[in-house]
Amino acid sequence: MSETALSYLIMQDRLHKRCKALDPVRMGQRPLILEFDAAQLDLAVRSCSVVLETDTGLGLAAVVQEMDLHEDCSQELVIFLAGRERPVSFSDPLCGAMPAVTTFANASHAWFGRTRFFSEPATNRLNVSFVRSPEAAAAERKRPSKFSVAVTPTRPNCDSRDASLYLECGGGGQELLSSYCVPKTLACDGVLNCVDPGSGFAFDESLPSCVAKKGIMEFF
Question: Rounded to an integer, what distance in angstroms lies between the CA atom of residue 153 and that of residue 28?
Fold first, then answer.
């Protein structure tokens, strides 16, 4: 297998297992699915965070795959902070429910607002943080909060010569109209990595080739 192909194999990790970790998770050029399950935390734990790091010169984009948190962000939230010692930019607080998009057909019709995705091309570090109140922690005895987010290393711009290799996606950082690029190898895999800058749709999962792939999968 080529080095390029190896770079884009998706990693998986769990935030609730890294609450006390001091070192960043080094992703290289590989996307990562970060999952969280509050049922795995001690009730005394009020916050949990992890730093994700890609190669120098690349940016990072985060797209929530699904989320089931308290509907009040003052009780419980997730936030993305991009940068090293001081954040270059940060997301809006995320809370409430965001349903999973599990099929290619659904992805082509689902709207993903700014709160569902965040990108920052100016830094290769992203902090993913979960914070909750004592009341929210107690309530999770009955209904533990969960979420899943795909974090993808990105190129800051798409060279026209690379059109056959990369998809252009929309930005969600300080500059709402900024864009980023991800490898086309991530298309049609059921994971949301790329939000279309024009429409707000999950571009990498709503290409014509994804619809064709879905039809083949249903046929068999």
Answer: 8
